[in-house]
Design brief:
Length: about 190
């Protein structure tokens, strides 16, 4: 089998994680999502919760710049980015796989046999889905979606200097709200 990698970037609540796992299962290849967080935690010595949070906030925001000691050397986020970058590169070289999130689309941008996918959906579909999957919260589902997507976009732009979700940065973008989860899986599998 040709060494093929699929990266899946996604809006929060669009079902990208589910799609990635199902594609990998149907193709009989590994899927790396939360497993990446575990590997970064093991190599860095930080907790998985810390890694998860660090991957959602771009360094350099107002508070980060006000309290940063960047001039003294790289910060924790930069250190974690380097570890994450190396792990994703190693996984892609090891064999076929699906990698969900973590800027893998950018990290593997020069890999010829990498299919870069972005999954999106309208606000109503995503809001309904996150309530079903994650349950009710004090904050409205729409606000949770806006906050999470804003953090993902800022993190992606900080480390890649590319606009997250912009169609030009991916091989294909799929609307899971219109197509449905199963059809997205079928399309990606067909492109593999």
């Amino acid at each position: 089998m040709k060494n093929r990698v699929i990266t899946i970037s996604r809006e929060f609540g669009s079902g990208g994680r589910t799609i990635g796992k199902q594609v990998a299962e149907e193709l009989g290849i590994p899927c790396y999502d939360r497993e990446l967080i575990q590997q970064v935690a093991e190599k860095s010595g930080f907790t998985e919760n810390y890694i998860q949070d660090a991957g959602e906030y771009a360094p350099g925001g107002f508070l980060a710049s006000a309290f940063s000691h960047r001039s003294a050397g790289p910060n924790n986020a930069d250190y974690l980015w380097k570890i994450q970058y190396n792990i994703i590169t190693e996984l892609a070289e090891k064999g076929p796989c699906v990698i969900v999130g973590r800027c893998a689309d950018y990290i593997l941008r020069d890999k010829a046999d990498c299919l870069k996918v972005f999954i999106h959906a309208d606000m109503a579909f995503r809001a309904d889905r996150i309530v079903k999957v994650y349950g009710e919260r004090e904050e409205s589902p729409e606000q949770r979606l806006r906050d999470k997507d804003k953090r993902r976009a800022a993190y992606h732009r900080f480390y890649t200097n590319m606009k997250w979700g912009h169609a030009q940065n991916y091989d294909i973008t799929l609307n899971s709200g219109t197509l449905g989860i199963e059809k997205c899986v079928e399309i990606i599998r067909g492109l593999y």
